[in-house]
Amino acid sequence: MCGDILPEACYGRAYREVSPSGLVRRVVPAPLSADEIARRNAEDRQRRLDEVARMKQQRLDEALLETYRSVEDLDRRRDREVADLDRTIHTLRERETALLVQQKELIEKGAGYPEGSMPADLEDDIRSLDGEIIAQRSIIDAKLRERSAVLDRFEEDRKRYLILSVPEGR
Predict the structure, then answer these.
(1) Of 26, 37, 69, 115, which alpha carbon lies 20 to 30 A from 44's?
(2) Which of 6, 53, 12, 7 is nearest to 36 (CA)?
(3) What pTM, to 2 d.p., does this model score?
(4) How far apart are CA 26 and CA 37, in angstroms?
């Protein structure tokens, strides 16, 4: 039984406070070690991160359910976005084809000149078309990646929507 002042032997250790009648008033745990404190802090940090992630997912789920009335609605929206991208890609490819035809005509025109005597403006036009064709292809590639990302996003949304819209217990 400890008095008012904690004996040195009790420092850094768990102990019990006992009343004069012999009842345990409270149990004082031993202070945490540095490893235990670090572990507790890591667990607290992870718990907070998990809670933030859970809240974020909850907001995303609510937004998904508010955005689409049904899976068919989601599919229609996906089809509309993909169709818009397909039209854009088609237009870009038509432009690329026109540039290639124009470049071919200029190259054929330049082939009529003897070696080294092609007019500078014709060479500049051919080089300029090379740059435009490269730019056009990079835009097409970006739109194809965007199309793929849209399909992936809608597939994920569709799966999540189906999970969220199925009643519990089924």
Answers:
(1) 26
(2) 12
(3) 0.67
(4) 22
How confident is residue 148, by pLDDT bands cut at 50, 70 and 90? Answer: very high
Tell me the C-alpha distance between 63 and 56, whole Å: 11
32: nearest Cα among 20, 24, 41, 23:
41
Cβ-Cβ contacts under 8 Å for 96 (sequence gap 6 or more): 133, 136, 137, 140
For 43-97, write each residue's pLDDT tens digit. 999 999 999 999 999 999 999 999 999 999 999 999 999 999 999 999 999 999 9
169, exposed or middle or buried, with CB in 10 Å at 0-12, 13-18, 19+? exposed
Paired with 24 in beta bridges are 18
Q: What are the b/e assignments for 81-96, b being 16+ CB within 10 Å?
A: beeebeeebeebeeeb
Give the SS3 label for residue 109.
Answer: helix
3-state secondary structure of 23: coil
DSSP 8-class letter at 139: H
